[in-house]
Design a protein that fits this description.
Length: 333
Amino acid sequence: MVEVDVGVVGAGACGLCAGLAAKQAGVNTLILERDSTALGTTAMSTGLIPAAGTSFQNEAGIDDSPELFTEDVCRKSGYRTDQNVVMTITKESAQTIEWLAREQQEPLSLVDSFLYPGHSVKRMHGTPNRTGAELMGSLCNAAERAEVELLTDATVSGLFADSDGRVRGLRCTRPDGCTEDLACRAIILACCGFAGNRDMVQRYIPEIEKGEFFGHPGNQGDAVIWGEAMGAAVADMSGYQGHGGLAKGYGIPILWPTIVEGGIQVNQRGHRFSNEARGYSEQAVDVLEQDGAIAWTFFDKSRHQLMLEFDDYRDALTAGAIQQGETLEEICD
């Protein structure tokens, strides 16, 4: 049996950062990834990272703090989240960005072209193309430079615990069906959520169960299932990330700067049906309630120019998901 100090389940941004940090601390670490390539949900996102009090914000003259960031998060969640947990994360956010940029050579910069929904100040940081795929590629390069051990095509199928309930190892399954066991002093579960598990979605977040799943198929709730099997409690299971602007039939998100900078959504009858500026996650449920679960996003040329900063938007243009015209009649034709 192979033995390591730390086993990391999942090689998305979370798992790769955990592996890099552990390696930097001199800890013997192995990351296990179910796919043949490290991508995950991160690669399907914009890869933007919020942080308060970074050098990038300081250079832009933006005054921010963990306290303000915490208030924004709590307000966005309707004050249903644990403020102490949020504060712990926000206090670490700036130094995490600095660590990524300075020590891991991630090409990050402040997104200063628009204010992200729910944030009081501009605090999103991203790579040049504003894509999660670009962030993942850069993180994989950092892991390779640091000689972090990454085992792909390794689907973790279960955890082992001792008589005291302390997790001591895991089992993974290889593509040929063979299994391998790994002994660990500690395990980091970086395998995302359960949006790809319809039974769990119906159980915990029924309001969005009819929504189209746009995420990595590996998001099956494994960490939750393993934890519950070992007697762990769960909390905040009704939380989720929705999106009210997924281009139907294209699988490309129409990003929300189109809305926060002045655009609107209408249903198939041409009626505006909600306050879209609340946020793209909140808007998802409202869109599902419309005829055919369809909404059209309208925005002008200046918003179009703004969106050209994002690869996802350019991909949507190329795919034909965005219609352009000088008049409403021309667009509707």
